[in-house]
Amino acid sequence: MSSTGDSAVNGGSGAEPIRRRKDAQRNYDRLLSEARTVVAERGSDASLEEIARRAEVGIATLYRHFPNRTELIRALYEQSLAGLMASSSDIFAAPSAWEGVARYVERVAEWLIDDPGLPSIIVYMGTADAGYRPGAAIEAPLAALIARAQADGELRPDVNGVDVSILVTMLGVLSSYNRPGKPATIDWRRQLGIVLDGLRAENVRTELPGTPLDADGFHHAVHKN
């Protein structure tokens, strides 16, 4: 029998590499899943050994996928951000600019609230990598959406995209009151309603002090290096 026939009988010369790739992907996915749980419980400085143990792999396997803590936390952040972007296409297709702003605030706040470890992940990356700016792609579309809502007379005229993003982050901090596997203790949508009403042009009562940060200024403010 030819060597080609032998390969077919034995599963093919590519069978073993394919199996290894599948095993590697399974380990990668399991590590990310367990890392997200552990970070939610213990913060971004959680034990890497504990993450590997829960994923049922050795610490060497963890380091093969993620050479250091920063790369593991970065992978968690990017996985979360990809999920947010995939579910947010309707923000910029809303029937009105105000509705788009409201959807943005609600969707991003929900994203933060639903993953109690995410605020810790964001803070960690702000310290570990000063050049890391995964949300840059949304800055211009958000600014344009806000300008439209202001031109329509729906959004108060003295706020910008950074103001809105800071408010969303403040809502996201409420996730710290929730713990994995336990019922939520705070109905954050109450605070969401207050925030949205405060952004409406018709409700302006107080002149905002100071000068709003632009996107670059905000980036530098939250990065420690």
Keywords:
225 residues, mainly alpha, Arc Repressor Mutant, subunit A, Tetracycline Repressor, domain 2, 2 domains, 11 helices, 64% helix, elongated
Description of the molecule:
The protein has 225 residues and is mostly helical. The protein folds into two domains: 14-67, Arc Repressor Mutant, subunit A, CATH 1.10.10; 69-223, Tetracycline Repressor, domain 2 (Orthogonal Bundle), CATH 1.10.357. It is built from eleven helices and no strands. Helix 5 packs across helix 7 (118-128), helix 6 crosses helix 8 (136-151) and helix 6 packs antiparallel against helix 10 (188-199).
Cα shape: elongated
Question: What is the CATH architecture annotation of the largest domain?
Answer: Orthogonal Bundle
**N-to-C SSE series?**
HHHHHHHHHHH
- The helicity comes to 55-70%
Supply the helix-strand structural class: mainly alpha
- Please summarize the sheet with the most strands: none
Number of helices: 11
CATH topology of the largest domain: Tetracycline Repressor, domain 2
Radius of gyration of CA atoms, rounded to a whole number: 22 Å
Report how far the terminal alpha carbons are from each other: 65 Å
CATH class of the largest domain: Mainly Alpha
Give the total of beta strands: 0
Mean pLDDT: 86
- β-strand amount: under 5%
Integer tally of domains? 2
Q: Segments where pLDDT lies below 50 for 5+ residues?
A: 1-11
Annotate the secondary structure layout.
Elements: H1 3-9, H2 15-42, H3 48-55, H4 59-65, H5 69-86, H6 97-114, H7 118-128, H8 136-151, H9 161-172, H10 188-199, H11 215-222
Helix pairs in contact: 2-3, 5-7, 6-8, 6-9, 6-10
